[in-house]
Amino acid sequence: MDVRTLCLGALTLGDATGYEIRKMFEDGVFSHFLEASYGSIYPALTRLTEEGLVTCHSEQQEKRPDKKIYSVTAKGRTAFTEALLEPLAEDKFRSEFLFVMLFAHLLTPERVKGLIDEKLSEHKELAERLSGPADIGTPAADFIKDFGAVVHQASVDYLEKNRHKVEAIAGAPSSRAHAPQQDEDAAPSASPDKNKDRRQKELARIR
Amino acid sequence: MDVRTLCLGALTLGDATGYEIRKMFEDGVFSHFLEASYGSIYPALTRLTEEGLVTCHSEQQEKRPDKKIYSVTAKGRTAFTEALLEPLAEDKFRSEFLFVMLFAHLLTPERVKGLIDEKLSEHKELAERLSGPADIGTPAADFIKDFGAVVHQASVDYLEKNRHKVEAIAGAPSSRAHAPQQDEDAAPSASPDKNKDRRQKELARIR
DNA sequence: AGGGGGTATATAGGACCGATATAGGTCTTG
DNA sequence: CAAGACCTATATCGGTCCTATATACCCCCT
Question: Does an H or E element contain A163, and which?
């Protein structure tokens, strides 16, 4: 499902400019489960217009750049409802936070605490924002919002209950840079066999 | 944080081939919060080698393509621990499922039920996999895994308790294609003022 | 014997993001 | 009241990354 389809869906909720669509992704209805940038929205709208799925009428306001307001056409509505029937991509979650936390033993407790505080307030803010009043975009909007609120609240709860564990790891001795260096750092060791052995163990550990 | 840094982190956990790194993202330690494809991993390893952050020794097995095993250098370790101190990108969640659910009123109850069943078993499988035995990559690996398990379990609980709401929306009358079409479908209406008015209302509704 | 799936590397093409440019408007605060 | 910060609004370039594909050989099952 590419940005073109996403824009089509956005316009199904009401006519809008590229700027307004972008805001739906940044602040609005879509903000907690989708992203799209100007760099993809504007080209998408151009192509949708070429394909006859949307129309565009410019509204010029004095001394301002034209406002291009896009509307879905009947053809666009059809195309969109058809797109909704196609198989969906899996949900994706990307967290550099968790990646860094995985290496807590290389960090200072202060760094770990700082990152968790940050993440915690992010989740709190989102849980807050999504449990807000039921201003509605579609009948299902409440269902979607509450879902988000619940998940973010679960994150908050987990972090508050378990943060001491990672913080302890970061604080533990023999972690970090001052720990004694291993022998094989600068170049592959002279003994490939030994190296391979160690590698096997490490891989077993990882999986 | 680009794929180069991610690969560096992966190699910090033990020497590996490009193929093995890819598996860490697909099945392994990173799988539930990161993604990276061959198309980015192989070029990343090449560049890391050029920059002296990793080394590569080929292990040729009879009648098989060379296996290129990569190892972090001291320089690579330093670069990685420094990368861990830089500001992190926000967590990202992308869900076409939620996007489609937002338009439940355009779908049949069967479609909605099918999608929820699918999503439910995805979450269940992940919750299961992440609450599994504590096979460890780093000291913090348990913390990260449990976090994932908790969040996926929260999703399962929410979907099971609330699925009837969206399913009811999809089943409700006056939804979908057979509903009477609005007047303004094919082209922008003849009255721009009226159009603008309606647009304002719709935008108010969305926010 | 043949197909399916696993190991393993590599690249071309396209989708998308991040940053930047432009340009005027409104709000804030010293 | 004026300077600076932020908002509206469109647009594009460079670079990163994913998808799909190609290659090549193995093992296992039927």
Answer: helix A141-171
CB B72 within 8 A of CB B5: no
Give A161-196 pLDDT, tens digit per residue.
999 999 999 887 765 554 444 444 443 433 343 344
Residue B175 is inside which H or E element, if any? none
Measure, in angstroms, how far nucleotide D20 C1' is from residue B142 CA.
Answer: 35
Nearest to B103 among A32, A138, A205 (CB): A138
Nearest to A102 by CA among B189, B30, B132, B119: B30
- In 3-state terms, what secondary structure has residue A146? helix
pTM for the predicted model, two decimal places? 0.85
Q: Characterize B25-61 residue by residue with b for buried, 16 or more Cβ atoms within 10 angstroms of its Cβ, and e for exposed.
A: beebbbbbbbbbeeebbbebbeebbeeebbbbbeeee
Amino acid identity at B171: G
Per-residue pLDDT tens over the stretch B20-29: 999 999 999 9
Q: A47 CA to chain B: closest CA distance, Å? A: 17
Strands A92-94 and B54-59: unpaired
Comparing CA positions, the residue from A70, A151, A42, A28 lying closest to residue B99 is A28
Record the tokens describing residue B59, joined without a space: 């292990």
The β-bridge partners of A57 are A69
Shortest Cα distance, chain B CAs vs residue A18, angstroms? 13
Cβ atoms of B146 and A158 within 8 Å: the answer is yes
C-beta of residue B31 within 8 angstroms of C-beta of residue B24:
yes
- CA A190 to each of CA A47, A193, A194, B68: distance values in angstroms, whole numbers, following the listed order: 58, 9, 9, 17
Which residues of chain B lie closer than 8 angstroms to A188, CB-CB? 55, 57, 71
CA to C1' distance (Å), from A174 to C4: 48
| Locus of tokens 């830089």 | B86
3-class state of residue A133 by DSSP = coil
Q: Hey, are the CB atoms on A95 and B33 less than 8 Å from each other?
A: yes
